[in-house]
Amino acid sequence: xxxxxxxxxxxxxxxxxxxxxxxxxxxxxxxxxxxxxxxxxxxxxxxxxxxxxxxxxxxxxxxxxxxxxxxxxxxxxxxxxxxxxxxxxxxxxxxxxxxxxxxxxxxxxxxxxxxxxxxxxxxxxxxxxxxxxxxxxxxxxxxxxxxxxxxxxxxxxxxxxxxxxxxxxxxxxxxxxxxxxxxxxxxxxxxxxxxxxxxxxxxxxxxxx
Amino acid sequence: xxxxxxxxxxxxxxxxxxxxxxxxxxxxxxxxxxxxxxxxxxxxxxxxxxxxxxxxxxxxxxxxxxxxxxxxxxxxxxxxxxxxxxxxxxxxxxxxxxxxxxxxxxxxxxxxxxxxxxxxxxxxxxxxxxxxxxxxxxxxxxxxxxxxxxxxxxxxxxxxxxxxxxxxxxxxxxxxxxxxxxxxxxxxxxxxxxxxxxxxxxxxxxxxxxxxxxxxxxxxxxxxxxxxxxxxxxxxxxxxxxxxxxxxxxxxxxxxxxxxxxxxxxxxxxxxxxxxxxxxxxxxxxxxxxxxxxxxxxxxxxxxxxxxxxxxxxxxxxxxxxxxxxx
Lengths: 209, 327
What we know:
The complex is a heterodimer. Chain A is an alpha/beta fold. Chain A has 2 domains: about 1-85, Methyltransferase, Methionine Synthase (B12-binding Domains), Chain A, domain 1 (Orthogonal Bundle); about 90-210, Rossmann fold (3-Layer(aba) Sandwich), CATH 3.40.50.280. Helix content of chain A is about 60%, strand content about 10%. Chain A has a 5-stranded parallel beta sheet with strand order 2-1-3-4-5, sandwiched between helices. In chain A, α4 crosses α5. The two termini of chain A are about 30 Å apart. The relative contact order of chain A is 0.13. Chain B has one domain (about 5-325): TIM Barrel (Alpha-Beta Barrel), CATH 3.20.20.210. Chain B has helices at about 5-10, 30-35, 40-50, 65-70, 90-95, 110-125, 135-145, 145-155, 155-180, 200-215, 230-235, 250-255, 270-275, 280-290, 315-325; strands at about 15, 55, 75, 85, 130-135, 185-190, 220-225, 240-245, 265-270, 300-305. In chain B, the strands form 2 sheets. Chain B has an 8-stranded parallel beta sheet. In chain B, strands 3-4 form a two-stranded antiparallel sheet. The longest helix of chain B has 24 residues, at about 155-180. Chain B starts with a helix and ends with a helix. Chains A and B meet through α4 of A and α8 and α13 of B.
C-alpha cells in the first residue's frame, strides 16, 4: 500500500502528474480500480475536505487537489465499466438562472465526486426547466443549486416550484448553498438541506441518504 | 484627517450603512439609469442622505467601473448590478493590449468624478463622501476567469503578480482622480481575497493593496466580504485607515486583533437581516452588535456588505434608528 500512500500525499499536494503515475503503478501492481478509488482518491479528497473545513487550506489548494483527483480519475474511468465500480448516489448540480459564479459549485462537485457520488454538472445559469429536465432524465438522489448573488438566490424557490409543478419534487432531495444563502433561507423555500461549504455538502448528502 | 480621529471626535457612534442600490427606489429609477446619468445618480444618492442622514455616504457598489473603462464587455441589466461578459486576460502578453484608463474620459469613471464633486458641494458639509474602487485581486478576477486566477496563485504566481500590478495601476489612477474630485474616503473593495490563504494574501496580494493605500492622501477603507476572519491582521497591515468586515467575521474579536487606530466597520448581515429580516430583527441585531462593541472606540456601525437592491426601506430606517439610539 506504499503506492496508495504516495498517491494520497500527491493528491493532497495537488501534484496531478504524480497522481496519474501512482494510479497507473497501482493498477500494474494488480490493485482494482475500486480499491484505488476508495483507498486512494476518495480518502485523499476526504482529507482535503476536512482541511478546507478547518481553514487549514483554502480554495486554490482545493482546486489543485481537485485537478489531481481528476487526473487519477481519468486513468480509472475506462476500467469502471469493466470492473463495475459502484457509485453511492447521484447529484445533479448547477448555478441558478442568471448566476455565472461557479467556483463554489465546482468545489461541491469535486467533493461529491471524491466522496463517491456520480456528478452531473449542468454548469452555470441553469433555468428551472433545465434543472427539472435533468431530474427527470438522470433520476438523481440529489439536486444541488448554488448562487453567489442576492438577486439570483431568489431563483432557488422557483426551481423548487417547477419541481412541484412537474411532479418531481418528491423524487429528489434538494441541497442549496452559496455566499448569500443561509440555513434559514433553505428552510423557508422548502429545500431539504443547506451546505455552508463544499465539505458540508458531502456531510449533508450522507445524512440525507 | 485620519478616520480614527474623525471617529474619536464625534460624540456618538458613527452610522454608515452600505446601501447605495436601495436609493433608486427613493427616486423611482432603475440601476442602469443611474449608472449612465450623473444627474439621476446624484438625486438618488442625495435622496439617501436626506432620508437617513448617515455619517458617510457611498454610491452603488458598482464593481465593474474599472473593467468597463478598459473596454471589457459588460452586461447592464435594467435594474440589477452590472457584470462582465468576458474575462479576456490569459497571459501577461494580453495585458499589453490595454492602456490604463483615463478617468476623465474612459467608460463611466467620469460619472463618479462628477458625482463626487457635486455630492461634496451639496451635502459634504455634514456627510463624509465615500467612493468605491476595486481591490487588485477582485479586479484581477474580472480580467481573468476567477477559477483560473485562483489556480494561478499556485501554478503561476508571476502571472498573477503581473495582472495584479496592472490592476493596481488602474486603481491608483482612478483613485487619484477621485481624490482630486474631493472625496473624503475611498473604500477598496476586494471581496475575492476571502478565498486565499493568509500566506497567499500576504505574499501575493497585500503588497499591491499597500501600494494603493500609500498612493492616496485620503482616507482608505479595505473591504473584504464573506468570511475574512483568517485575514484580519494582514488586512490591518495594509495600512488602510479602516477595515470593512462582513457578517461572518467576529467584530469584537477583530477589535482585539487590529491596532487601536484601525477603524472597524460592520457587520450587520445584508441578506439575512437587512433584506430578509423585519424591523424587529434589524433592531435586535444592531442592538446586540452595539452592546458587544461597547467601549470599542475604533468602530463604525455598518452593514457587512452592500444591502441588496430590494432591501426594504423600513429595515434601513430601523438600522439607523437603533444605530442612533445611544445603545
